[in-house]
Every structure is written in C-alpha cells, then in structure tokens.
Amino acid sequence: MGGGRMDGTLVCKNMPGMPSGEMRASMSGKFASTSYDVVSEATIDMPAMGGAQKGGKFITKTQVPGKRLGACDAPKAG
C-alpha cells in the first residue's frame, strides 16, 4: 500500500473442517484521502465432501468504490 495504490493476496490451504481445498483472494485498487476504488476476486477450490456432494470451484468478484461525504454524525464509542 503506497503511492495511492493498494494490492494484496491471501491464500488459505487446508481450511478447518475440510480435508483439502484452497481459498485465494486478491485485491487491488486506488485510494486517496477522501476516496477509494477496490476490485477483489476470491476463488475457493472445494473438495468433494462425500455422498452426492461434488467438489468444484467457487469464484466471487467485487468492485467497491467509496468517497467521503462529510463529517460522521454517529456518537463516539466508549
């Protein structure tokens, strides 16, 4: 994260409760003091779980833009 850009990757192998499989998530985008725009993609390789349950690949893609609209009216915590 720097120079107005952010990039990252996360990999989880052998997730709890699963004999095998992997999740890989990546994100990249731009940010400034009053805005951001991030694109992320997550891929999960699911193993076969037995019975009629077959394994497969699950993919999600998102884009999240945001900008500051003004002061926050919410009460401060604590």
User: SSE order in H/E notation?
Assistant: EEEE
Strand order of the largest sheet: 1-2-3-4
Measured as a percent range, the helix fraction is: under 10%
Q: Find the count of extended strands (DSSP E, 2+ residues).
A: 4
Provide the structure class.
mainly beta
Give the low-confidence spans: none
Query: How does the overall form come out from the CA principal axes?
Result: elongated
The end-to-end distance, rounded to whole angstroms, is 30 Å
In DSSP terms (H or I, runs of 4 or more residues), the helix count works out at: 0
Arithmetic mean of pLDDT: 85
Radius of gyration: 18 Å
Relative strand content: over 45%
Main β sheet profile: 4 strands, antiparallel
Write a structural description.
The structure is a single chain. With 78 residues, the protein is mostly beta strands. Helices cover 0% and strands 55% of the residues. The protein has strands at 5-13, 22-31, 35-46, 56-67. It has a 4-stranded antiparallel β-sheet with strand order 1-2-3-4, with no helix packed on it. A hairpin with a 3-residue loop joins strand 2 (22-31) and strand 3. The chain starts with a strand and ends in an 11-residue tail after the last strand. The model has no long low-confidence stretch (mean pLDDT 85).
Tags for this model:
78 residues, mainly beta, four-stranded antiparallel sheet, 4 strands, elongated
Entry summary:
This protein has 78 residues and is mainly β. 0% of the residues lie in helices and 55% in strands. The two termini are 30 Å apart.
